[in-house]
Each structure stands twice: as C-alpha cells, then as structure tokens.
Amino acid sequence: MQALTYGYVRDDLADGRGEELERALRDLARSRGLCFAATFHESCDGDGTALAELTHELQRADAHHVLTPSLDHLGGQTIPREILIARLARDAAAHVLTLDG
To answer: What does the alpha-carbon distance between residue 78 and residue 59 come to, in Å, rounded to a whole number?
Structure first.
C-alpha cells in the first residue's frame, strides 16, 4: 500500500500557477511511490488556516508526507519556516518534500 501524502501551496507565491504546481506535486508523489490525496491552499492572507487544517488531516489520516513547491511556501524567513517544519514533524511525524529538491 502506498503512503498517503498531501500538498501545501501558498497562493500568494504560486503566481497564478496553482494548477500547474498541483500537477507537479502529484507527479512528484507518483515518482516517490506516494498516494497523493489533496492539496491545501493557503490564502493570500497567509493566516495559517490551511496549514492548521493540513496538520489536522495528517493526524486524522495517519499520513506523514507533505509536498510543497519550495520551502518558501512554509514561511519566507528561515526561523518561521524551521518552526513550521518542526511543528509538522512534532504534531504529525511529517516529512516535507519539495519540487526544488
């Protein structure tokens, strides 16, 4: 059985390429042998609602992979990004994979 994975995209960083990025995330999942379930889109406000919903869904589904176009989508500055990645790891035992490696 393939491990379940979810995507996370900040719409303000997608530059109108949300569908293209989601296809790329699905392709990445397939190439890694993961089962892609859905993408959580953070609104331009960036209030963290989608990230909180993603974390809850990871816990509910016992899923442990998050795909995102780049680490910039999990923050924008090193400290907040590192905190978000650590929170995903702590709260949902999730690993983050990015399109940019």
So the answer is: 25
3-state SS assignment for residue 45: coil
**Surface-to-core class of residue 89, CB atoms within 10 Å of its CB (0-12 exposed, 13-18 middle, 19+ buried):** middle
Other Cβ atoms within 10 Å of 43 Cβ, number = 12
What lies within 8 Å, CB to CB, of 23 at 6+ separation is none
Spatial separation of the C-alpha atoms in residues 22 and 88, rounded to whole Å: 20
- 36-85 pLDDT, tens digit each: 999 999 986 667 889 999 999 999 999 999 999 999 998 866 668 898 89
Q: Extract the tokens encoding 35.
A: 């089962």
4 three-state secondary structure? strand
- What is the 3-state composition of the chain as percent helix, strand, coil, each rounded to the nearest 5? 50, 25, 25
Residue type, position 88, single letter: L
Euclidean distance between CA atoms 11 and 24, whole angstroms? 15
